[in-house]
Amino acid sequence: VQLQASGGGLVQAGESLRLSCVASGRIFSSYTMGWFRQAPGKAREFVAAITLSGGSTVYAVSVKDRFAISKANAGAKKMVYLQMNSLKPEDTAVYYCAAHRYIGSVSELPGQYDYWGQGTLVTVSS
């Protein structure tokens, strides 16, 4: 499984940005895909996740009502998006997409994700 994240950039507070993640290889509909972020000097934290089968979503409290995760199929590849609205300076971080195999629930723990993309930098200026 290969994950490729894109869409990061520099925006001002209050603006929007959409991140994309392309998942290729042996990724099954039973997988869950998520977004994490890591700010300088901080631990990697969960942002949002979506199941590829039913489309169930889970959000971190800090982004709920501002961010939206969605999915789409692109041939043999899976696409996952993170629409980020009303961005704040504290949203500044490197954002990573990740995937985990079926474990019966959506995980918010980085250690339970099996595959990771390379990260895309989001910078929000005040």
Q: How many individual helices?
A: 0
Quaternary state, please? single chain
Quick check: average pLDDT? 95
Q: Which radius of gyration do the C-alpha atoms yield?
A: 14 Å
The portion of residues forming beta strands comes to: over 45%
Shape: globular
Largest sheet: number of strands, sense, barrel closure: 7 strands, mixed
Q: Helix content range of the residues, please?
A: under 10%
Give the terminus-to-terminus CA distance. Answer: 37 Å
Uncertain spans, ≥5 residues at pLDDT below 50?
none
Give descriptors for this structure.
126 residues; mainly beta; seven-stranded mixed beta sheet; four-stranded antiparallel beta sheet; globular
Short description:
The protein is mostly beta strands and 126 residues long. It has strands at residues 2-6, 9-12, 17-24, 32-38, 45-51, 57-59, 67-74, 77-84, 93-100, 115-116, 120-125.
Task: Please give the structural blueprint.
Layout (H helix, E strand, L loop, with lengths): L1 E5 L2 E4 L4 E8 L7 E7 L6 E7 L5 E3 L7 E8 L2 E8 L8 E8 L14 E2 L3 E6 L1
Task: Describe this protein's structure.
The chain has 126 residues and is mainly beta. The chain is built from no helices and eleven strands. It has strands spanning 2-6, 9-12, 17-24, 32-38, 45-51, 57-59, 67-74, 77-84, 93-100, 115-116, 120-125. The strands form two sheets. Strands 2, 4, 5, 6, 9, 10 and 11 form a seven-stranded mixed sheet that branches. Strands 1-3-8-7 form a four-stranded antiparallel sheet, with no helix packed on it. The chain is globular, with a radius of gyration of 14 Å. The protein starts with a strand and ends with a strand. The model has no long low-confidence stretch (mean pLDDT 95).
